[in-house]
Protein: ABC transporter ATP-binding protein
Amino acid sequence: MNDGAGFCIHALDAGYGSRRVLSQLSLAPATPGSMIGLLGPNGAGKSTVLRACARLLPVQGEVRLGSLDLLRCPRDQHLRHVAYLPQVLPQASTLRVLESIAGALRATRPDLRVGEREARLQAVLTELQLLPLALRRLDQLSGGQRQMVGLAQALVRRAPLMLLDEPTSALDLRWQMLTLQALRQAARERGAIVCVAMHDLNLAARHCDRLVLLGAPGTACLQRGAGAVAGPPWVACTGGLLAEGAPDAVLRPELLRAAYGIEARVERSAGQACVVLVERALSLPEWTGAGVHRVDAPSLRARRRV
Ligand SMILES: Nc1ncnc2c1ncn2[C@@H]1O[C@H](COP(=O)(O)OP(=O)(O)OP(=O)(O)O)[C@@H](O)[C@H]1O
Structure:
């Protein structure tokens, strides 16, 4: 399915009305079969990157999958190539799990024969161990169970590019592991490119080939200057791309401090994966220094009057 096409984001601008969230964001190209973890604190813009690539926001810049221009290609082409899983859980409707996954596949791949659709449905339910829930109604599932159904709706499409927004946020440890194994498998066996926003740094370190770390807008950050490839020397900047590269190049105490405002140690597991141990949250002045946006009481009152 994937013709060897890399995923590129170049000079991407995106935001909401007059609020600019991403400014000239460029990332190193991702190769087929790779898994990229999108990291950063709340509000850094991870969802905005994914929504921009899913064409859910007005954006400027370039997003390509090989030769395909994902921002301007016909909608059906985009649907065929990109599976997007939003942060919100599938709606708690009276649909059965099986119907909701089948419906997602039918809507996005009407070209597939019935037999192929059935085979994919069976495969995804088996892989995610969802068979016991197949005939249950969505409005009678727990939050984590519905999150797994959302993941199944995305996986069943077998798109060459998968964009997933915190797919493990509501899951227990076993389902977290099953989810990441299924994504890894999609990358390894089908050559899919998987881009996943996450808050669990240790899961990201263990499963992703490459990490992209975004900083909170309005905070003082460190960046390697133009290109922001992970590694010193760091220079001051505000928000945006802090670092990208292999997990051990990105998960470094000074970068975690700049991005999240935490003091952390980074150690190695027996399998040599990075393990982040958070010691404490920094106070705002410690974290942001002079870069913090302060809103004093008079200016807040003045804004309320407008
Ligand atoms: N619909 C919206 N309208 C206006 N501003 C928005 C909207 N959605 C998000 N934002 C703002 O855009 C910025 C980036 O938000 P985004 O949801 O991309 O962050 P995130 O990194 O995914 O955060 P989180 O980890 O909390 O999900 C934030 O400052 C947020 O307040």
